[in-house]
């Protein structure tokens, strides 16, 4: 028997949940190790390039860093089982992947770090036990956590904006809960790429940390069930009678899901437009060479961009990674027939997301040697 895949991940890591759930749902055998395992620094990091998770090691020894790349590794090799066939569903699935992986970082960071009375001991336990057991482990844990305590503010949560961030999150939670009343997954009866992307913040931060997990359980039980379901190998949908087994027929995007996107569009669209403008100005000024890393750690951020949400000004960290993922949405759209593009246009207009099709950087972001890099 060959060795299983090794997934270097951490239970409380936002991006780890995305890749882990994919492996579980696709029945791919794997062993999970934390970055504190000796093999990560010695064997994996030299090939992974960045000390970020998730990182996958195949039975043949290939190292794949980043959840999007891990999922693409299996999707491209297996006829894309989690990509719907219809044009509208393809766009919506890819869009939820971006929103989950980058667009919901604000509430994810806020609800983890700004409620220490409820969350701190729980989070400290996970940070502590994800590292090697050395005499300096506790001290290192505190340093790591101190760097993260202001993550909510980095993404735009301040005393002046906290109430509107929370209001928007609750509206999103209510809309998503209404959708899951009808279906167990975003696009019907099995998970799409969008489900895995959306799970990233909804599991590790918003579905496990004590304060937001309790909020989700009490306010949106169906969303909480979806979080559980996404970590089960089977369909796990016994509460749906006469359940199907595939994506919805006829390229249907349910109105309940359109309602979810309308709520998410309120900050996702203006933030994306502001970030694109900021990065394009930076690109014009800096002219990075082709092959230069475009995505790194938070400390390597390009800066902050401002946008307006319900009459409040939010200043949030600019992350090129959003546009690396958004390229996929735009590439799918470009490849469609004019007739299918018109259908997608109508859908995106209806959910106030149409501007994401033109929110582009002046340089594409590619991938080389496990790094996201600027293309020529």
Q: Would you write up a description of this structure?
A:
53% of the residues lie in helices and 9% in strands. It is α+β, with helices and mostly antiparallel strands. Strands 2-1-3-4 form a four-stranded mixed β-sheet, sandwiched between helices. The relative contact order is 0.14. Helix 4 runs antiparallel to helix 14. The protein has helices spanning 14-25, 38-48, 67-77, 87-103, 105-113, 116-128, 137-148, 151-154, 162-179, 193-204, 210-219, 221-229, 255-286, 320-334, 338-350, and strands at residues 5-8, 30-33, 55-57, 63-65, 304-309, 312-317, 365-368, 371-374.
- Taken from the alpha-carbon principal axes, the silhouette is globular
Please give the share of residues in helix: 40-55%
Low-confidence stretches: none
**Biggest pleated sheet:** 4 strands, mixed
| Rg, alpha carbons | 20 Å
Q: Give the integer mean of the pLDDT values.
A: 95
What's the number of helices? 15
* N- and C-termini, Cα separation: 44 Å
Counted beta strands: 8
């Amino acid at each position: 028997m060959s060795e299983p895949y090794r997934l270097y991940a951490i239970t409380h890591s936002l991006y780890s949940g995305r890749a882990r759930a994919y492996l579980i749902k696709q029945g791919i055998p794997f062993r999970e190790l934390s970055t504190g395992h000796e093999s990560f620094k010695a064997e994996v990091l030299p090939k992974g390039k960045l000390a970020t998770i998730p990182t996958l090691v195949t039975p043949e020894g290939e190292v794949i860093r980043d959840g999007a790349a891990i999922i693409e590794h299996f999707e491209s090799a297996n006829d894309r089982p989690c990509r719907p066939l219809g044009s509208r569903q393809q766009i919506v699935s890819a869009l939820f992947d971006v929103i989950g992986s980058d667009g919901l970082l604000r509430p994810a960071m806020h609800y983890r770090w700004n409620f220490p009375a409820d969350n701190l001991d729980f989070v400290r336990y996970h940070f502590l036990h994800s590292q090697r057991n050395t005499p300096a482990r506790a001290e290192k844990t505190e340093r790591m956590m101190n760097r993260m305590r202001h993550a909510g503010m980095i993404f735009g949560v301040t005393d002046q904006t906290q109430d509107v961030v929370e209001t928007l999150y609750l509206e999103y939670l209510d809309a998503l809960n209404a959708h899951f009343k009808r279906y167990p997954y975003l696009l019907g009866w099995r998970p799409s790429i969008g489900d895995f992307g959306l799970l990233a913040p909804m599991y590790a931060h918003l579905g496990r940390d004590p304060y937001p997990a309790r909020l989700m359980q009490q306010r949106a039980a169906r969303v909480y069930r979806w979080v559980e379901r996404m970590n089960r190998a089977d369909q796990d949908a016994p509460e749906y009678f006469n359940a199907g087994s595939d994506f919805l027929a006829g390229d249907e995007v349910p109105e309940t899901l359109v309602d979810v996107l309308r709520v998410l569009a309120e900050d996702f669209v203006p933030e994306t437009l502001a970030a694109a403008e900021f990065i394009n100005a930076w690109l014009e000024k800096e002219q990075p060479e082709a092959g230069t890393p475009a995505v790194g750690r938070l400390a390597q951020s390009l800066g902050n961009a401002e946008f307006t949400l319900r009459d409040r000004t939010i200043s949030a960290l600019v992350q090129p990674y959003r546009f690396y993922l958004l390229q996929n949405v735009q590439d799918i759209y470009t490849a469609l027939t004019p007739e299918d593009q018109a259908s997608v246009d109508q859908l995106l207009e209806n959910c106030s997301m149409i501007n994401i099709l033109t929110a582009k950087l002046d340089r594409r972001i590619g991938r080389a040697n496990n790094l996201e890099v600027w293309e020529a």
